[in-house]
Amino acid sequence: MSFLRARHEILRCNQTLALPEAPYAKLSEECASSIIKALVSCKIDTDVDKASIMTEIVAGPMNQQDKMRAIESMNAVVAVADQIPESRQKAGLQTCQHFYHYLTEKDWTVVQSPAPMASKLNYLVGRCMSIGLAHPTERTVSVIVAVVTCNVDAGAFASELLSCVRDFKVALRSAASRTPLPHDVPKEYPENPLELEAMHPLIYRSAYVDGKPVCGYTKYSSHEWSGLIARVPCRSTRSGCSTSQPAVRHGAATNQQTNLLCNLMMKFQ
Predict the structure, then answer these.
(1) Which domain holds residue 111?
(2) What was the pLDDT predicted at 49?
């Protein structure tokens, strides 16, 4: 409620300035979007809570259509929460094998900028939290780190990839501990984020208020992404997450080949 009242107070201050209709409509729309984003992760336990929020929205300074948007979202949040058994409300590990499809054009601008690696990792923590991805699998962490390091030469950066994995996990755990999650977060994210919109419209709507995800924005093919992901270690160790077969030890392979060659030479002497 405090956030809702604060947003309304900001809008009222702008209202007293007698702004023209178009700028005020834009501010009202932004106010509604912020409220919707907050409602997605807000826990509305009782009808009293629901009535209080609804009364504040109806009495507030937003335009009528924006009030309707906010109320519809609140009703949807309550309906979803009522349908979820208590046992399912705790998030388990989540998989997002195609995280690079979930970034907006603005996200890619940040990722591909010369900003410090720590800043980029923290930025992607925000994107993860926005779509409810707070408990990724080890493989998913590798995908996310591959995104932020995709433009960096592997040889020059290999020694720092492990640090990136560790730093990202620490930052994500910190964000998850202080940020309420939506009631029904996905366990497995579809390859195409438009499918997320169909499955979890409230999460999608609040995550992409400022821009839609751009599938296929990068220059890399699926095969190239697999290679970029495979070079990232997981479980905070130096072991990779590649699904390919483990590499053969060169020493053992060389000895076996030498013995086989010697046997063949003796056979034909």
Answers:
(1) 99-230
(2) 67
